[in-house]
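Board notes (copied after class):
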Amino acid sequence: MDTIASLFSFITTPVSWVIVQFHSVYGKLFGADTGWAWGLSIVSLVILIRICLIPLFVKQIKATRAMQTLQPEMKKIQERYKNDKQRQSEEMMKLYKESGTNPLSSCLPILAQSPFFFALYHVLNGIATGKTIGVIDDQLLESARKAHIFGAPLAAKFTDGAEKVSSLGATLTDVRVVTAVMIVMMSASQFYTQRQLMTKNVDTTVKTPFMQQQKMLMYVFPVMFAVFGINFPVGVLVYWLTTNVWTMGQQMFVIRNNPTPGSKAQAAYLERLQKHVVSHGKIRRRGEKAIVKAIVAKGRDRNEFERKFINSLTKAGLAAQADGTVAKSDAATVVETEDGTTTTVAATPKRQQPKRQSKSQRASAAAKAAAEAEPKTSLTKSDQPQDAAPGTAKPAGGATQPGTGTRSKAQSGRKGPQRPKSPSKK
């Protein structure tokens, strides 16, 4: 153990120094030998480490977003080589290499915490075995051995025997109960964090080997923590439980404010953003502008939730701009349907219903319409019959001239040419 501790001395010394500095502060408030002073020192160490890892976390988010931009290409590869899994995996790895992305980028925060985890383990193991390590001298060592967290010593383990536990001033029952509860909470927080990522912040339209790997880790990691947790000192369990809670809260913040495109979290986020924009008529936050800008830049490659967001703004008389802002739109705008086609919608006010009329008003309006529709006929007769020869005068009294055998159409009472009578057969 001394050899391993000497190998990690470059990190155990800074970790022990940070713990001692926090202990000097909390010791004045709660007492130097209390579990609160040493327990809060470990929690503060976790918070300090995670704050230092925020740039790495931002880099992880960017790498994850780069992976998300490759989702359409991944879907094409899956459809093209759906019957050849080996060729599909080769094309996926080729795509990762060409785009410069790494599907294992989500493991970066865990890998970065590993040196601090091992350093803290060796510090607490030294406290349990009564050996000074780093800047922890004999006086601090004796104070740490007296510290109890809910009745369990800081350096006690679940697998320790009754003799060793009693040497630390505790009972075996207290140590087993406290460590078991902390192991269950640690595994449950790890499972919930991974499950939240897989159910809310993953594009369900594309199935990739990376998603299958994440799904497998969702069940593997909690089991690993439960198995290894029985060999961790109480102080290490406090460290790991704190970092799991921090990771869970950090992930909840990211999922709520910067969700993955095509995920359920994006649908909920765009719905909230649409209500806010419609009620206020503008976008205030820089992150919201960046998301709207990315949606506008996609054009016809938008997913179902993004098209619904753009169409809802259009129906409200607003239009998303290329810079991420929104503006009022009075002219006709283009609305995208689910299949990618576009239709033109005019942003006009709603049509008002006509005022209801009484029965007498409807009757008079119908009579007036019928009168206007009736054709107008001339009541004056022509002074000259249509079949009269030009230059002949019409006799007085309207009688026909003798010998002509013709009558006017008005006098005959018949219209059109007369049908000749057929000769009678004798």
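Comment from the instructor: Residues 377-413 have pLDDT under 50 and may be disordered. The chain has 17 helices and six strands.
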